[in-house]
TrEMBL record:
Native organism: Mycobacterium scrofulaceum
Gene3D superfamilies, A to Z: 3.90.75.20
UniProt superkingdom: Bacteria
UniProt name for this protein: NUMOD4 domain-containing protein
Length: 90
Protein backbone atom coordinates (compact mmCIF):
# COMPACT_ATOMS: atom_id res chain seq x y z
CA UNK A 1 0.00 0.00 0.00
CA UNK A 2 1.53 3.27 -1.09
CA UNK A 3 1.27 6.46 0.95
CA UNK A 4 1.00 8.36 -2.33
CA UNK A 5 -2.40 6.91 -3.23
CA UNK A 6 -5.30 9.36 -3.36
CA UNK A 7 -7.42 8.18 -0.42
CA UNK A 8 -10.72 10.01 0.09
CA UNK A 9 -13.25 9.72 2.92
CA UNK A 10 -16.40 7.65 2.45
CA UNK A 11 -19.56 9.76 2.61
CA UNK A 12 -21.51 9.24 5.88
CA UNK A 13 -18.50 7.35 7.29
CA UNK A 14 -15.96 10.19 7.52
CA UNK A 15 -13.25 9.44 10.06
CA UNK A 16 -13.84 5.69 9.81
CA UNK A 17 -13.34 4.62 6.17
CA UNK A 18 -11.52 5.83 3.03
CA UNK A 19 -11.52 4.71 -0.62
CA UNK A 20 -8.96 4.86 -3.43
CA UNK A 21 -8.85 3.83 -7.04
CA UNK A 22 -8.89 1.11 -8.23
CA UNK A 23 -11.36 -0.68 -5.95
CA UNK A 24 -9.70 -0.21 -2.57
CA UNK A 25 -11.39 0.46 0.76
CA UNK A 26 -9.69 0.81 4.13
CA UNK A 27 -10.65 1.56 7.69
CA UNK A 28 -8.83 4.25 9.66
CA UNK A 29 -7.29 3.99 13.14
CA UNK A 30 -9.93 5.23 15.56
CA UNK A 31 -11.17 5.08 19.15
CA UNK A 32 -14.81 4.23 19.92
CA UNK A 33 -16.84 3.91 23.11
CA UNK A 34 -18.62 0.57 23.53
CA UNK A 35 -21.44 -0.43 25.83
CA UNK A 36 -20.60 -2.87 28.58
CA UNK A 37 -22.06 -6.37 28.34
CA UNK A 38 -24.54 -7.56 31.01
CA UNK A 39 -24.28 -4.55 33.26
CA UNK A 40 -20.55 -3.97 32.85
CA UNK A 41 -19.52 -0.31 32.51
CA UNK A 42 -18.87 1.20 29.07
CA UNK A 43 -15.31 0.96 27.80
CA UNK A 44 -13.04 2.52 25.19
CA UNK A 45 -11.94 0.36 22.25
CA UNK A 46 -8.98 1.18 20.01
CA UNK A 47 -9.44 -0.05 16.43
CA UNK A 48 -6.47 -0.31 14.09
CA UNK A 49 -7.11 0.56 10.45
CA UNK A 50 -6.63 -1.97 7.68
CA UNK A 51 -7.47 -2.51 4.04
CA UNK A 52 -10.84 -4.23 3.79
CA UNK A 53 -11.39 -7.35 1.75
CA UNK A 54 -14.35 -7.32 -0.60
CA UNK A 55 -16.42 -10.17 -1.92
CA UNK A 56 -17.70 -10.70 -5.43
CA UNK A 57 -21.48 -10.95 -5.78
CA UNK A 58 -22.80 -11.23 -9.35
CA UNK A 59 -19.82 -9.29 -10.70
CA UNK A 60 -19.93 -6.50 -8.09
CA UNK A 61 -17.39 -6.06 -5.29
CA UNK A 62 -19.17 -5.67 -1.92
CA UNK A 63 -17.88 -4.55 1.49
CA UNK A 64 -19.46 -4.22 4.93
CA UNK A 65 -19.17 -0.81 6.64
CA UNK A 66 -20.20 -0.03 10.22
CA UNK A 67 -21.85 3.26 11.20
CA UNK A 68 -21.47 5.15 14.48
CA UNK A 69 -24.29 3.12 16.08
CA UNK A 70 -22.36 -0.09 15.19
CA UNK A 71 -24.92 -1.15 12.55
CA UNK A 72 -23.43 -2.68 9.43
CA UNK A 73 -24.26 -1.65 5.88
CA UNK A 74 -23.34 -3.51 2.69
CA UNK A 75 -22.13 -1.27 -0.14
CA UNK A 76 -20.55 -1.78 -3.53
CA UNK A 77 -16.97 -0.59 -3.83
CA UNK A 78 -17.81 1.09 -7.15
CA UNK A 79 -20.54 3.23 -5.56
CA UNK A 80 -18.24 4.28 -2.70
CA UNK A 81 -15.55 5.36 -5.16
CA UNK A 82 -18.09 7.17 -7.35
CA UNK A 83 -19.40 9.14 -4.37
CA UNK A 84 -15.93 9.99 -3.07
CA UNK A 85 -14.44 11.04 -6.42
CA UNK A 86 -17.58 12.67 -7.84
CA UNK A 87 -18.08 10.18 -10.67
CA UNK A 88 -21.58 9.89 -12.11
CA UNK A 89 -21.36 6.24 -13.18
CA UNK A 90 -21.59 3.78 -10.30
Amino acid sequence: MSDFDDWRPVRNHEGAYEVARPDRVRSIDRVIERRGHRGAPPFIQHLRGKELSSRNHHGKQLVWLYDREHRRHQRTVASLIAEAFGDTAA
